[in-house]
Amino acid sequence: SGASLRYSTGTGGEGSEGAGLASSESGGSGFSLAAAALPERRRPGGGRPRYEVVRELGAEEVRWFYREDRKTWKPFIGYDSLRIELAYRALGPGGPESEAAAAVEPVCVRSGLYEVDVVSGESYPVYWNQTEKIPVMRGQWFIDGTWQPLEEEESNLIEQEHLNRFKGQQLQENFDMEVSKPVDGKEAIHSLKLSRNHVDWHSVDEVYLYSDATTSKIARTVTQKLGFSKASSSGTRLHRGYVEEATLEDRPPQTSHIVFVVHGIGQKMDQGRIIKNTAMMRDAARKVEEKYFSNFATHVEFLPVEWRSKLALDGDTVDSITPDKVRGLRDMLNSSAMDIMYYTSPLYRDELVKGLQQELNRLYTLFCSRNPEFEEKGGKVSIVSHSLGCVITYDIMIGWNPVRLYEQLLQKEEEELEDRWMSYEEQRLLEELYITKQRLREIEERLHGLKASTISKPPVLKFKVENFFCMGSPLAVFLALRGIRPGNSGSQDHILPRTICNRLLNIFHPSDPVAYRLEPLILKHYSNISPVQIHWYNTANPLPYEHMKPSFLNPTKEPTSVTDSESVSTVPSPTTSPVMVRRHYGESITNIGKASILGAASIGKGLGGMLFSRFGRSSTTTPQTLETGKDGAEGDDKKTTTVGTPPLSHSSSGFLEPIVELEHRIDFELREGLVESRYWSAVTSHTAYWSSLDVALFLLTFMYKQEDTDKSSLDTI
C-alpha cells in the first residue's frame, strides 16, 4: 500500500547510521522516505512483501510480542509494533546498554493502556498498578503454522548467521511462504549449532529447526531409516520476518467513551481482582464490538478503579481482636463483609467515599492529559459499579451524607415539641433557641459566602456521568433504609437527577442474593411488573429495549378475587403483553425455578390485587381497553399511558386516574440458562457479570446508541 513503510538497512555505510527509518506522508512520525523502492515480491493472498535480495529485516518485517499470565506470545498490532521497533533501533548498535538508552522514551501501546520500555524489555499498565511485569519480545524468526516467535536469543543468533552466510544472495523466483515445499533429497547447505537445537539451511529460504534432545535424535534416526527425510520427520520450518507487514495504518480506533469499572467488597482479600475482572469485561466488549459495532470509527475503553487498597481505615485493629479459631473463614469475612460495616460506620465512611472519589478524578485527569482530544471532541464517561461500589458511587454523585438524616431527625423532634403542651417558661426558652439557631444559620451562610467568593469549590467529580450501570447492586435496600419511598412521577429524578447522570440502569442476575430492584422505589406498582429481559448475545434481530412493553411477574398466578379471575382468564392488554415467551417467577421449566429474591413482587389482595386487575384488564371487560392499548403502543415515549378503565365496583377506590409509567426502564435482568441450578447460581451469580457477553452487549448497546443519536443530531444541524 502507499502508506506502507520501507527500510533500507545494512552493515557498514549502507544504513547503519539511522537504521534506515522511513515513513509515508500519512504516517507522520518524523521518518524520511526511502530514496528508492526496492524490488519486492508479495505473498500469495496479499501477504508481506519480500525482496529479491537477502538484506537486513526492515522495521515493518519485525514484529513485537507480549505475554500475559504466562500464556502464549501475542503480537502487537502493526501500529504499536512499528513504533516499538523504531524506539529499539534508536538505541543504536549497543542496544539497551548504550548511552542513548536514557533518551529513549517509553512507547504507548494497546490503545494507550500500556507502555513498553524497550530498554528493560517490559510492558506495564498506565492507569493502574500491577505487580507482575509483562515481558515483551522482538520477533525476527517465526515457527511455521503458528507464527509464534523463536526466543529472542536464538532468533538473534540465527539472524546473524543468516546474514553472514546469505546476505546479497538472490531469493528463489517462485517463493511461496504459504505452502511448505518438500525438501526430500536436499542436503543442508549450511548448519548452525545452538544450545539445545540446531538449524539447517536447505536453501536461502528453506530453513528448519531440529531439537538435539536424545529422544528427538532417536526418533529422527528411526524415521530416516524408514525412508523419511530429516526435515519432514522431525524438523520445524522457520520463516524470516512476520507473516503480515506492520503499517502505521494498522492502529486502534479512537476512544470516544470511557467506562470506569468500580469494584465492591472483597478487594482486600484478592488484590488486583478488579484489574482481572475489567480485563475480562474489556475482552468481552472487544468481541461484541467486532461483531456488532465494527462500522463505528471509535470504540469504548474500560478502566479499572481500585479504591480499596490505598485506605488505612482501622489499620490492624480488627485483625488483632479476631479469635484464632476458624481463622481462615474469619479472615475472609474481615477482608470482604467488613467493608460494608466500614461504610456504615460514621468514622470510616468518609474515608471510603473520598478514596473512590479521588481515584475517579485521578484516572479521568490522567486520561485527558494523555488524550487531549477526548474532551475537545465531546468524549463521554460512564460508570459500571458492582455490589457495594454502586452505593458508594451513588452517594458521591448526589453528595449524600448521613448528617442529613440527623438534621431531619432534629427537625422532626422540634415539630413534635411544638405540638405538645408547654409551660410559659418552656415556650420562652424554645423561642430563644429558635432565634439563636436562625442567627447562627445566617452567620454560617455569610461565612460560606465569603469563602465561596475567594475559593471556588471544585465539583465532586470532574466529569458528567452519562450512564450509571449497577451490577448486582444492593443500592435499593440502602435507599429504602434511608427513607426513600415510591412517588407518583415515574421519573428517574426521584432517586437520581438527570442533571447529575443521564441514565441509570440496574443489571442483575435473577439468582443474585445481593441484588435488588430499583423501579418499585420510583413507582410502587412496578413491583408487579417484571424487569426487562436482557437479550442473549447471539439473538438474531432482537427487539430494541425501548420498544419492549411491560409484562407481569406472574400472569398465571391464582386469582385473588372474582374480578381478577375474570381478567386473568382472558387475553391480556396489548400494552402489557410480553414481547417474547419468557419464564415468569413461580413457573418451572425443566423443574428449575428462579430464586425468590423478588418474593415481595407476588400479587396479593388489596392494592397489589387492584393494580394487577387494572394492568391485566382484558378486551372483554371494557370496549375502551383495546383502544387505550393501541394508543399506548403508538405513544411509547409518553411519560403516562392509560392502561385500562377500572370496573364500577372499584370506582370509589380512588384509582380512576391513569396509571403512570416510567420514562425509561431501569431494572434489567439476565436470562437464566436452561440447565442452570438456582442454588449453585445463588453462589456464583454475584460475580458472573464480568465475563458475560450478554452484559457486554447490553453496555455497548446503550453507549453506541447514544453516540449514534448525537451523530444524527449533528448531521441534522
From TrEMBL:
User: Which parts of this chain are annotated as the region Disordered?
Assistant: 1-29, 554-578, 616-651
Q: Which Pfam families match?
A: DDHD
Q: Which GO MF terms are attached to this record?
A: metal ion binding; phospholipase activity
Looking at the record, the residues that make up the DDHD domain are 461-705
- Residue ranges annotated as compositionally biased, kind Low complexity, are 19-29, 559-578
PROSITE patterns attached to this UniProt entry: DDHD
Compositional bias ranges of the Polar residues kind: 616-627, 641-651
Task: Name the PANTHER family for this protein.
Answer: PA-PL1 PHOSPHOLIPASE FAMILY (PTHR23509), PHOSPHOLIPASE DDHD1 (PTHR23509:SF32)
**Family of the protein in this entry:** Belongs to the PA-PLA1 family.
Q: What is this protein called?
A: DDHD1 Phospholipase
